[in-house]
């Protein structure tokens, strides 16, 4: 698609298992291909690992593990997208990693592509800000702030620490 | 100051002020139930537990466990076995623990912070959180 005044840049992310979603272009800082990961016990199945990035310890979120709800065979190619998020505008910007099945793809999205999530993709609703159609596939735009928030953790576990 | 417990390949830090004492495993008196051995001191028996790398309770004491750390608790201390134990001064070692990311928290996790130590990811737990974890899982 050719960039025009009504389109915005975004990253199209492939989480494997046929799961695709997008985030804003400014929400992806870097892509790492061979980070050293550390598993942390007593953590959710979808976020069991951390790694060190610029002296910070960042969580690695595995959306396919969350949505498919079972342990997935580790991907052969380890791609980590370093994402930026803010829980809300008064909170500081934080970093976290998304485990991806392949390199993110830079795309342009226009207002005309906006559409609703179909019923068979309802599982995206808790984290989707909106969605758009691309090549006849509906792509949700992920709310990273919510994904890494106290609110989401409380939703998953019924209490916030 | 922190006490470092090494067991099953993991590094676990507990604040030194929350530790009653460090003992050697040969001092345990007897085992009465699966996974728990007992240590007798001043007429009080303290249960001593073994954890694995998932923080699950082990039913038997692995051969490599040479020590146990007694955590302060009322009415008696509670022990955790380990392969190695040492004092670590975070300031001197330039260690800067970071809070466990919110997204990684679970209600029964005793892990409060993470810290990179000797090319490993070490966990920082309070004595109280560890004792709660042990009591829930024993």
From TrEMBL, chain A:
<dbReference type="Pfam" id="PF01584">
    <property type="entry name" value="CheW"/>
</dbReference>
<dbReference type="InterPro" id="IPR036061">
    <property type="entry name" value="CheW-like_dom_sf"/>
</dbReference>
<protein>
    <recommendedName>
        <fullName>CheW-like domain-containing protein</fullName>
    </recommendedName>
</protein>
<dbReference type="InterPro" id="IPR002545">
    <property type="entry name" value="CheW-lke_dom"/>
</dbReference>
<dbReference type="GO" id="GO:0007165">
    <property type="term" value="P:signal transduction"/>
</dbReference>
<dbReference type="GO" id="GO:0006935">
    <property type="term" value="P:chemotaxis"/>
</dbReference>
<feature type="domain" description="CheW-like">
    <location>
        <begin position="27"/>
        <end position="150"/>
    </location>
</feature>
Automatic annotation (TrEMBL), chain B:
<protein>
    <recommendedName>
        <fullName>CheW-like domain-containing protein</fullName>
    </recommendedName>
</protein>
